[in-house]
């Protein structure tokens, strides 16, 4: 209900802005632009570090598709909640099969932002993020082997996972990048000026860290109650059954991230700051930081871990989960803001 109310109020304000801008443009004589229309010639300017942004959004889109389909299978009863092995297997299989999504999305965004090093984009999209996660997995597994834990993954299984990564996931990502690069570049509704517009000094509450802290905690607030039950299931070996409610919370997270990112982007453009791309990613992607902070609080208040390897294992996997949440929520925020910016600037009359 709160999301619908906020979205309705925001749409009414936005429609009023568009009608006022277009009415001024239709009048005789010149009318000085103001508000977010001032940055129409710079809003689609390629952001700094476009390579990293495209890779993160591409891998976040892959994780988002994996999580959505896995939850859908669990909701309709294809996966049994009591069989964790089947759930893990399906999750890994879907992640591998959706490698083409990461390549396609990354290539499209990189080409839209006028990137020239497309070979690096193809290789890094297929190897960078999965390689980082797999490296952390290997390090944590060494701790399990050193501690003599039965939960340590055998060497043969490690080789099988690496084979799946290099023989299935990476080639699918390259195929997706190929089709993404073959597509024509996304054309923007407004032309980009030759000289960048100077960004006026911004108030402190529009700083990137302030917006990240505010946007991140709003996105985290939509999931933190369910996160408690998920962590109980993970670390106390309890069976998690309420996948229907989890799927609803997942949808609520997507809606919340989209609305928060769009609102913060709107306020940023109204203050004549057109560098929205990274801000859209970090404003809601910072929810991963709150997930890790919550994991630290959970460790102190709920767990009783007395040895160093177990504590290292807990914080290592908590860090991986937090990074994955950052990629998913940040990708949702960036894609939502991209669609929003293209829609609103295509609705106004500009010279």
Radius of gyration: 22 Å
Helix percentage range: over 70%
- Helix-strand pattern: HHHHHHHHHHHH
Number of helical segments with 4 or more residues: 12
Distance between the terminal alpha carbons, to the nearest Å? Answer: 40 Å
Low-confidence stretches: none
- The structural domain count equals 2
Give your account of this protein's structure.
With 351 residues, this protein is mainly alpha-helical. The chain folds into two domains: 48-184, no CATH class; 202-351, no CATH class. The chain is 72% helix and 0% strand. The protein has twelve helices and no strands. It has helices spanning 2-26, 50-76, 84-97, 99-112, 118-146, 155-182, 208-221, 224-235, 243-270, 277-285, 287-301, 308-345. It starts with a helix and ends in a 6-residue tail after the last helix. The model has no long low-confidence stretch (mean pLDDT 86). It is a multi-pass membrane protein. Belongs to the nonaspanin (TM9SF) (TC 9.A.2) family. The chain crosses the membrane at residues 55-79, 85-110, 122-146, 158-181, 209-230, 242-266, 278-300, 312-341. Keywords: Membrane, Signal, Transmembrane, Transmembrane helix. It is found in: Membrane.
